[in-house]
Amino acid sequence: MTERVVLAYSGGLDTSVGIGWLKDATGKDVVALAIDVGQAGEDMEKVRQRALDCGAVESVVIDAREEFASDYIVPALKANALYQKRYPLVSALSRPLIAKHLAKTARELGADSIAHGCTGKGNDQVRFEAAVAAVAPELTSIAPVRDLALTRDKAIVYAQEHNLPIEQSKKSPYSIDQNVWGRAVETGFLEDPWNPPIEDLYTYTKSPDEAREPTEVTVTFDQGVPVKINGEALSPIQVVELMNTLAGDQGVGRIDVVEDRLVGIKSREIYESPAGLALIEAHEHLEDLTLERDVARFKRGIEAEWSNLVYDGLWFSGLKRSLDAFINHTQEHVSGEVRMTLHGGRAVVTGRRSEESLYDYSLATYDTGDTFDQSHAKGFIELWSLPSKISARRDKPEL
Q: Which residue out of 70, 175, 317, 357 is catalytically annotated?
């Protein structure tokens, strides 16, 4: 029996040509695997059939939208995950899920390797291969574009010579990746970080400069998981889809960042993540109400490390699992409601309430009835500043 390789298949030119290219270069039969993570676009059945028409011995399509939302987006939301404090890990979150299904399909079908369409310059090559190594170390990884010199001009010629069912059109100047959590755009004129983005770049968000009435929305959380929008019970994928519409219609979620890639270079990226930015904002405000001060402060450092690990392709690492355990424990009391106003590209929290709240009105108020005993403050300050006072006698700091 001929050896097999399972290819992460998008339906586009490079991965379609990659089917025959892989067969020619390795002698392996190619199984195409397409994963639906809410990227929209073409009908997945057409994608499946195209892979067969391009020479795949089998073509598998998996609807992973619910899994993506529940098992990947929800943990990211609990972690308030923003790489470099800005990027909500749009592409990085989908890669371990795709890699898991690549490995699972390879084992089920007796393949000895997997393949992907990444170049040698990006992060995704690392994310796919590191994830596969972590869950199925016996499999090898092949990257036709990187390892087998499959350039775009060669791909076009190959498609023409083999009459592949690929409609050729003028190449977009941008590289685009998207799923239900957001959309990433790079290359073209964006490679000059001085150039401002133009409106044509965006599809998940409407212009924040358009005149429109604000949208008020209430998000209900249960132990860190969003479970309702405006009182309506929804699944995680339904929450994300609805918030994409509500926040996107108000221009919320546009991000312009110079990003430090894992491979050592800087890259200018444009992102859209309306649900991502709005839900993270709401979740952080509910944590302000329900987490103890020291837990909240410590968690911020854990959030940054969690985001770094996921960005760097280490979703299945031991450290990531340990951080998950800590983060999940912090969410035990993160239940309640957050009210937000969506308008002009901003998601502004205007109210929050929770039965698990640590906010004590009688302690916080400055009005009559205040239960805070201010007489304790003087002694507290004396003890708090005592180490600084002692060291100042020795160090004699200059003023």
A: 175
